[in-house]
Write a structure and sequence with these properties.
Blueprint (H helix, E strand, L loop, with lengths): L1 H16 L14 E7 L1 E4 L4 E9 L2 E5 L4 E6 L6 E2 L4 E5 L2 H29 L5 H26 L2 E3 L4 E6 L6 E2 L4 E7 L4 E7 L1 H4 L7 E6 L6 E9 L10 E7 L14 E6 L7 E6 L5 E2 L3 E7 L5 E12 L2 E4 L8 E5 L10 E3 L2
Parallel strand pairs: 1-23
Antiparallel strand pairs: 1-22, 2-17, 3-12, 3-16, 4-11, 5-7, 5-10, 6-9, 7-8, 9-11, 12-15, 13-14, 13-16, 14-15, 17-21, 18-19, 19-20, 19-22, 20-21
Helix pairs in contact: 2-3
Length: 348
């Protein structure tokens, strides 16, 4: 009987080993990890961006009205000057000689006129001859005034507080009338950026339009500005329209802006106040300047492939013709590997 008991026990052990296994836990589903950005609202029109040159609004070339030898120039480039300050002068020997000559001519003409009046009263000369003497006296007066004015303009004075931007001549040089001697920038006139616009840009710009200014020498530094001048006629040589953007130097008072600095300005067009939806350019899976394909994230964390019409590209964002619902999330990182309807995990 004992052998039979052993066999039965072994059979039970074999049957137990062949029984149903304990159910294993199902493997966790791994969803693709993505980053998202919320659709932003922005201006309906693209900013007009053009290259420009910084300058004082009023930059004056100063010169002598008469020619001569420069006796002195009292300032150097970069020096600050005050209104009425004497900046340069000619040797006045020739100028004073011209004044003396004109004065003598005027005195002679006056004497001739007085003598002519007496002779006319005595009917020694005709009315025509007296009229000629009066004309000669007037001409002599004009020549004297011109010589005296030339004597005054043999000196150059600052017309406003400013800074000497350029010095074109040196002491002892012989200069002709009107030849530039100094270039003076008026600080009171303000600092501007001068730029040129194509006709398709100029028609969308208005006086007072807001702008932003940057200079190549100072990357990352921005100044607020506004349009203060806009040409209404094209330059015959270039066909472009000049624009002046006033730079608000108070934004960075510690930075010294120099005339001639290269930079760029971005100007708000007239229809800038409308609103459009903007998505990051990284969200685009495929597209061109007219249409783009993006993935939007639904409430259940599934993604939906959408085609959107492109209005324009502004920096690193795309403006859409048709607005997306407020709060829409788009996949900004990882979109290239997704399938329509796929469930994703959003990285916070």
């Amino acid at each position: 009987m004992k052998p039979a008991l052993v066999i039965s026990t072994l059979s039970l052990l074999v049957l137990a080993a062949c029984g149903p296994a304990t159910p294993e836990e199902a493997p966790a589903v791994e969803y693709r990890l993505v980053k998202t950005e919320t659709v932003q609202s922005g201006p309906a029109a693209s900013l007009i961006e053009v290259a420009g040159i910084g300058a004082f609004r009023d930059e004056t070339r100063l010169s002598f009205k008469v020619g001569g030898v420069i006796e002195r120039i009292n300032v150097r480039e970069g020096e600050t000057v005050e209104k009425g300050q004497r900046l340069a002068a000619l040797n006045k020997q020739d100028v004073n000689a011209a004044v003396s000559q004109a004065s003598a001519g005027f005195e002679k003409a006056q004497r001739d006129l007085q003598r002519g009046k007496l002779l006319r009263d005595q009917e020694v000369i005709s009315k025509v001859q007296l009229d000629n003497l009066e004309t000669a006296a007037q001409a002599a007066r004009a020549q004297l005034s011109q010589a005296q004015f030339a004597s005054q303009t043999a000196e150059i004075q600052a017309q406003a507080n400013g800074v000497v931007l350029k010095r074109f001549a040196q002491t002892g040089e012989v200069v002709s009338p009107g030849q530039p001697i100094l270039l003076l920038g008026s600080k009171s006139s303000g600092f501007v950026m001068k730029a040129s616009l194509a006709d398709k840009q100029a028609v969308h710009i208005q006086l007072g339009a807001k702008a932003e200014v940057q200079f190549d020498a100072l990357p990352g530094v921005k100044w607020p500005g506004k349009v203060i001048e806009l040409s209404q006629a094209a330059d015959p040589a270039t066909g472009t329209y000049g624009v002046l953007v006033e730079v608000d130097t108070r934004a960075h008072e510690n930075i010294n802006l120099l005339s001639g600095m290269q930079g760029r300005t971005r100007i708000e067009p007239a229809n800038f106040n409308g609103m459009r939806s903007y998505v990051p350019i990284e969200a685009v899976v495929e597209g061109d300047n007219k249409a783009a394909w993006i993935y939007t994230v639904q409430a259940d964390n599934t993604v939906k492939r959408q085609t959107v019409a492109v209005a324009f590209i502004q920096a690193d964002r795309i403006a859409l013709i048709d607005a997306l619902p407020e709060g829409t999330r788009v996949v900004s990182t990882g979109a290239a590997y997704l399938q329509d309807g796929e469930t994703v995990k959003v990285q916070e």
